[in-house]
User: What shape does this take?
Amino acid sequence: MINRVVLVGRMTRDPELRKTNNGTSVVSFTLALDNRTKGPNGEKTTSFIPCQAWNQQAENCARYTRKGSLVGIEGRISQRSFDTKDGRRASVVEVICDSVQFLEKKSDANTSSQDMGYASDEQPSYIESAPESNNVSSIDVADDDLPF
Assistant: This one.
C-alpha cells in the first residue's frame, strides 16, 4: 500500500506547539489549499487540511512560521478516533508530516509578516527544515532556464 501526500499551501493560523507527557514536541496547523474545481456559483473553493509535525520539525515550524506562511509538506494520511467531552465518538483525518519546507524567501516573508501586522522584531527567519536539505547545495537558475 502507498500512503504519501505532498501539499503546498498557506497556514490558516499560527502553529500550535505542545509537548507530550514524555517531552516530545508536536505542532498542529491547518493548510489552506486552492481546489481546481469551482463552486456552484463559479467561485474558487478551498480545502483546509489539518497537519501535525513532530520533534525538531515541530520546533522549527513553531519558531519560523506564522499564519499565512507558505509551506510545502510531505507526509502520510492518518485517521484516528476519540471520544468527545459529550460522549460521542469522533474521527479526524490529518497529515502526519515527515518533511516541512518553508517556501518563502526571508524578504517575501517579511513583507507578508508586515502585511499581517507583525512587528519587525517578531519576523521569522525562514529556513528549510527538511533534514536531507543539509546535504544539498543550492544553485541560482534563471526562470527562463527552467523546463516548465
About this structure: DSSP finds two helices and six strands in the chain. The chain has a mean pLDDT of 80.
